[in-house]
Amino acid sequence: MKKALFIDRDGTLIFEPEDEQIDSFEKLRFIPGVFNALRKITNLTDYELVMVTNQDGLGTASFPEETFWPVQNFVIRALEDEGVTFSKIFIDRTFPEDNAPTRKPGTAMLKEYMNGDYDLAASYVIGDRDTDVKLAENLSCQALKLTETMNWDKIADIVVAGCRKAAVHRITGETDIYMEINLDGEGKSDISTGLGFFDHMLEQISRHGNIDLKISAKGDLHIDEHHTVEDTAIVLGQCLKQALGDKKGIQRYGFQLPMDDCLCDVAIDFSGRPWFVWNAEFKRERIGDVPTELFYHFFKSLSDNALINLNISATGENEHHRRYLQGLCPRGKNGRASRLAALLPAFVKRCIVTMCRKFLLISFIFSLLFFVGCEKVDFNETEGEPETDLPEEELSDTLSVAQALYLAEYGSDEDLSAINAVGIIGYIVGAIPGTSLSNAVFGPPYNSNSNILIADDISETQPERCMPVRLVKDTPFRAELNLEDNPANKGRLILVSGTIKSYFRTYGVYDLQDYTWCDEEQEETKPDYGNGDNPYLDFDSELVQGGR
Question: 309-315 and 262-269 as β-strands: parallel, antiparallel, unpaired?
C-alpha cells in the first residue's frame, strides 16, 4: 500500500507573517532545514508528498489571486530544484466562519486517500497548528507538529527511521535463529550465536554501520559450527533484503583497503540476482572458534538470500587480517543496479564521491565480509573519471538510451557535453508522474502529462533501463508528447535532443529542445544496438549484465 505525507504550507514550509497572508516576496522565508529534510525523505523513502493548506479568502478582494500565485509557484519551483515534488496540492479558499468540510481539519479534499489504497496508519500529517494534528486524527494518520524542539531535522529522522527495519525468525531441525535489523539505527547490537569470533564479526556490522542488530542463534554446536554459521547468514540475507525494500537512496561506492600484508578486493551489488565468486585460501584451520572453511558457506548463503552479486578475492599471510573490501552498493529502483554491476573495472577509478546517511552500507560492507579483525582501519580514497571506451564516431550520431545513460553516469564533463550536442533515440514506453523514476507507469491510465519515458526496447517495463524526458508546462512539447492526452504515442520511435541532468533521481532529458518522429524510417534511423559490437549499447550484453 502507498503512504503519504500531508504537509502544511504556512508555518511549516515557510514562515507565516502576523497577518497570515504571504502575498509578496518580501514576506517569504523558508523554515530552516526544510530543504535538507524533505530531500532526505524523498531520497530514502517512498512517501508521496501532498500539500494541504488553508488560504483564507483566496480569490476575494482581501486576498487577490495575483498576489498569491507568484509566491506559491516560487515555493514549488524551489523545492523541485532540490528534487522535492508534491504529487498533489490542495488549497482551501474558505474563511473559518464558513465551516466548510474542505477546510482543515476537514477531510473533504482528501477523500481519494481514504479509499483503501493508502496505508494511513503509516502516513503522517506535518504541520504547525492544532488543526494539523486534528486533521491527522480525522485521517487516522500520525501527526508531527513543528515546534522549537520538533524541527525539520528531527521530523526527517522520524519519518525515515521506520522504513528500513526487518525481523526474521527461522526455525529448522538444526537451528533456531531470530534476528532484528534497523538500517537507520545507532550502532547498537545484542548478538549471541555461541561462537565468540562469529559474534565479534557480526558486531562490526552494527558498530561501524550504525545499524541496530539483534541476533539470537541457537544451533547444534555440540555437533559442529556449520549449521549455526550458515543459517545465520541465511537469516541475515533475508533481513537485509526485507529492510532494504526497493533500495531507494542507496548509492554505489568503490574503495580499497590494505591491512598490513593483506589485501582483499570485493565487489558487491544488491542487484536482485544472486551470484557468488570466491577466490580466497586460508592456511589456518580456524580463526578463533570458527573454521575457516565456513567463510565460503557464510558468504554464499548471504548472497543467495540477500539476492546480491558478490565477488571476493583475498591475498596475504596474516589470516586474521586478511580481510577487507572494495565495495559496490546499489542505488535502488533508480540505480540501474543490474546493468552497472559489470562496470566495476571502470567505476573503481571513480571511488567514493559522497557518503550515504551515516556510512550505512559502506560500513556494512566494510565489516560484513569478515575482513575487519581490528578496531582501527585506515583506507585511502582516490577520485577519477571512468573511461567510457566508446568509439568516438558513436558520439557524432544519435545515441541509444543505454549509451546515453552510461555516459551521463560515468563519463567525463566532455562526454556529458557530447550527449547534449547529439540526439537520443528510443521508443516511448511510459510516463512519470512527478520527478521520481520509481513512479514510472508503463500502461494506461497515465494520469500525468508532465514526463515521458524512452527506452531501446519497445516493450521495456523496467524503469532503470529507461531515460526520462521532462515535458515543461505550457510548452508545445508537453501538449504534443504526453501520454495522458496522446496515448497513441506509446510505442512510437522518437529522436530527442536537449540538456541532460540528474533530475529524476537518474539522468534524463531535463530541458527538451527538439524532437523528431522516426516511425516512418525506423529501420534506417534506429541503429542495431543489440548486435554485440558495443556492449555499452545493449542492456542484455555480457558486459552490461555482468555475464548473465
Answer: antiparallel
